[in-house]
Write a structure and sequence with these properties.
- This protein is α/β, with parallel strands linked by helices.
- The chain folds into 4 domains: 2-229, P-loop containing nucleotide triphosphate hydrolases (Rossmann fold); 259-302; 392-534 and 569-609, no CATH class; 640-683, no CATH class.
- 39% of the residues lie in helices and 17% in strands.
- It is built from 28 helices and 23 strands.
- The strands form 5 sheets. Strands 13, 14, 15, 16, 17, 18, 21 and 22 form an 8-stranded mixed beta sheet that branches. The protein has a 6-stranded mixed beta sheet with strand order 6-7-8-3-9-10, with helices on both faces.
- A hairpin with a 5-residue loop joins strand 13 (393-396) and strand 14.
């Protein structure tokens, strides 16, 4: 049982003293889920740190299992933190160069536990939080939700009585936050879980008790606990922390080996005074070269980008700050009339967004400037232009089903959500851990515009096969351990996408997934995989009447027909495998299949020269897809005879359900005016400008990759 009696925490002395807690008294049960709510600076984190022994109170008493801590020494607090408390931090606090298993295992090193026992308990803790298959990954290879699960496993490894969580969902998205909260709720069945949060919704939904604090004082307790009414817990012997000499040496050596660069630089710096000025010059030259390499690698991964249109985030933040309700709360109140004024903050934010959306860059002028300025050519590694084009690539999965090799489509199939359906969904997807997944990526071109840039060949090693030599050849981009994420293998057609929803559903319900399916493929097996690029224009064929086009992708057998046809589409061939070399500090490619600029040029040229695009460019009066005339300002309504003929053809093309709707309309005995309106609702509904916007393929961004300081 944990009990706080009149806890006061004060920082500083005299006139500069700040009182963080002003006499807090509260008792906790042995197992419950307590959420502490309050605004920033009210003392929540201070209270949590005092409970966890990370900070000491100024006055009052913290009673642990009936024992006062007033006489606790540093060794006693160390034992308390190690054996009784488990910490979950908002920023995870994982050691980046250690594996997940090593991070969790580290919590047992000062407990005198043997290496084999530490490993067994760490694996068991990771399995409890659903990460049994991720034990050899490092934190930078995991999502935010997975890293928080590692932090929870680390907190549970010593089987503590109390679990403290400081904003455990603060850096997570909504879906991952729910998963973490469900896990904490399950833990709270056997332990005391105390969580500090700013999210009252999560607190109300998952906590069994909510405590509110304001200005260092408790203001509300939804389920107070009186210790005198409960049985006094049995007092036990204080546990002590211990670490064997061999364990300490092992940790030190491991830290030195994992920080080789730092160790070498430290030793080298220590020799400077002995060796003299010559080594100082040598060191400065080496550092300058290293900085230049880091700059080049960093700018290759995060290039300078110029977009045709983007949001002015600075103006948006200024609009929000200028209208903050607490902006002038410390200033003296002005004399106001007896009038209530409406705050226009929302309008100012909308105006800021709308104003920035109207500001567009002249991309044609920028391209002309880049192509003509010799200074840029001398100081930039490469200048590339990105176009708003589609790369609809199809393949067959092991079951023979034709699937589109597109990550967003895989997510849509798995989760049943169209991530391209709205701007909001697209924005949420871009902010999620999976938001930046790019399967097919154009590689930086060389000066001739077709081959692969030498910078890529410097950062990546060709481990099998060859670099692309033709426009339809691509390479597989591996990690340094020859790995590709399992979800990507579904997208590339090596695993059946139909099984992915079942696996994801099991993971969401907390089930242990034992069957991972096929997890290894030889290079030759992957190179034998067939991919086919089928452009949107290649799906359209003239209908039987010759008036309009039919989209074969919307028919039952159209996709199978187009994919199997030797005359439609472009086969793509995997010609090699590349992976970042050991000297690469920041590899530039983020996708998993790399293609050259030659394929992009081929897509643009093929689309522009296709039959349907050429036909629409030559016909300014008719929408060639539907066969209907464009709606213009001088549009002349069809005659009754023309309407009847068009309506007949329209009704014949309708489904059974739509025909029933037309029949009900006719049976309602509509007036001539209603009939005209009904007929024209499917005639002349598209403007010429709308068709041209779809065909334009406007350039969306210009990318400047530089290896020098700009």
């Amino acid at each position: 049982m944990l009990q706080l009696k009149n806890i006061v925490k004060q920082y500083g002395n005299g006139e500069n003293a700040v009182k963080a807690l002003g006499g807090v008294s509260i008792s906790f049960r042995e197992n419950e889920f307590v959420s502490i709510l309050g605004h920033s600076g009210c003392g929540k984190t201070t209270l949590l740190n005092i409970i966890g022994g990370l900070d000491h109170y100024t006055s009052g008493d913290l009673i642990i299992n009936g024992i006062s801590t007033k006489d606790y020494k540093d060794r006693d607090w160390d034992a308390y933190r190690n054996h009784t408390i488990g910490f979950i931090f908002q920023s995870y606090n994982l050691i980046p160069h250690q594996t997940v298993l090593a991070n969790v295992e580290l919590a047992l090193t000062i407990s005198g536990v043997s290496k084999s026992e530490r490993r067994r308990r760490a694996i068991e803790a990771l399995k409890k939080v659903g990460l049994g298959s991720q034990i050899h990954k490092k934190p930078n290879q995991m999502s935010g939700g997975q890293m928080q699960r590692v932090a929870i496993a680390r907190a549970l490894i010593n089987n503590p009585d109390i679990l403290l969580a400081d904003e455990p969902t603060g850096a997570l998205d909504s879906e991952t936050s729910i998963q973490v909260m469900e896990l904490l709720k399950e833990i709270a069945k056997d332990k005391l879980v105390i969580m500090v949060t700013h999210n009252p919704e999560l607190a109300e939904k998952y906590s069994t008790r909510i405590v509110r604090i304001k200005d260092g004082m408790l203001t509300d307790d939804s389920d107070p606990f009186e210790p005198e009414k409960a049985d006094a817990p049995a007092e036990g012997n204080k546990k002590r922390v211990s670490m064997s000499f061999l364990t300490a040496v092992s940790l030190s050596l491991n830290n030195l080996l994992t920080k080789k660069g730092r160790t070498i630089l430290t030793a080298f710096a220590g020799s400077i005074g002995i060796i003299g000025i010559a080594l100082i010059l040598s060191l400065s030259t080496g550092i300058n070269d290293y900085i230049n390499e880091i700059q080049e690698a960093t700018l290759s991964s995060y290039p300078i980008q110029i977009f045709e249109e983007t949001a002015d985030t600075a103006a948006l933040m200024n609009a929000m700050m200028d209208n903050s309700p607490h902006k002038d709360e410390d200033s003296e109140p002005a004399e106001l009339e007896n009038i209530v004024h409406g705050n226009t903050a929302v309008y100012e934010i909308f105006n800021s967004l709308n104003s920035s959306a109207k500001q567009k860059n002249d991309m044609a002028a920028i391209k002309e400037f880049f192509d003509s300025d010799e200074t840029i050519a001398e100081n930039a590694s490469s200048v590339s232009y990105s176009y708003d084009i589609q790369m609809p690539i199809f393949t067959k999965d092991p079951s023979g089903k034709i699937v589109k090799s597109d990550f967003s489509e895989t997510v849509q199939t798995t989760m049943g959500v169209d991530m391209n359906a709205s701007a909001t969904s697209s924005a949420m997807m871009s902010m999620s851990p999976m938001g930046n997944v790019e399967i097919w990526q154009e590689m930086l071109p060389a000066e001739n515009g077709t081959d692969v840039n030498e910078m890529i060949k410097t950062q990546y090693d060709l481990v099998y096969g060859s670099w692309p030599e033709n426009y339809n050849e691509v390479v597989v981009i591996l990690s340094q351990r020859n790995e590709i994420p399992d979800i990507v293998m579904y997208t590339l057609g090596f695993k059946e996408q139909d099984k992915l929803p079942e696996i994801m559903g099991a993971a969401m319900t907390g089930e242990i997934i034992d069957d991972y399916g096929v997890t290894e493929w030889t290079f030759d097996e992957i190179m034998d995989k067939e991919y086919k690029l089928i452009l949107p224009c290649e799906f359209y064929q003239k209908n039987e009447s010759g008036n309009g086009y039919v989209n074969l992708s919307e028919t039952d057998t159209g996709l199978e027909y187009v994919y199997s046809s030797e005359d439609i589409g472009t086969p793509l061939k995997i010609c090699g495998f590349i992976r970042p070399n050991e000297d690469s500090t920041s590899a530039m490619l983020t996708g998993y299949i790399g293609y050259t600029k030659a394929l992009t040029d081929y897509v643009i040229e093929t689309t522009n020269s296709s039959e349907i695009v050429s036909a629409q460019q030559n016909d300014e009066k008719t929408d060639i897809i539907s066969g209907n005339p464009f709606k213009t300002d001088d549009y002349v309504p069809l005659s009754n005879a023309e309407k009847a003929e068009s309506a007949k053809a329209y009704i014949e093309a309708l489904s059974t359900t739509d025909k029933a709707d037309v029949f009900r309309f006719v049976m309602s005995k509509p007036s001539e005016e209603d009939v005209n309106a009904y007929a024209e609702q499917f005639l002349a509904t598209v403007t010429r400008e709308q068709i041209e916007e779809q065909m334009a393929g406007d350039r969306k961004s210009t990318r400047l990759n530089s290896s020098h300081r700009l």
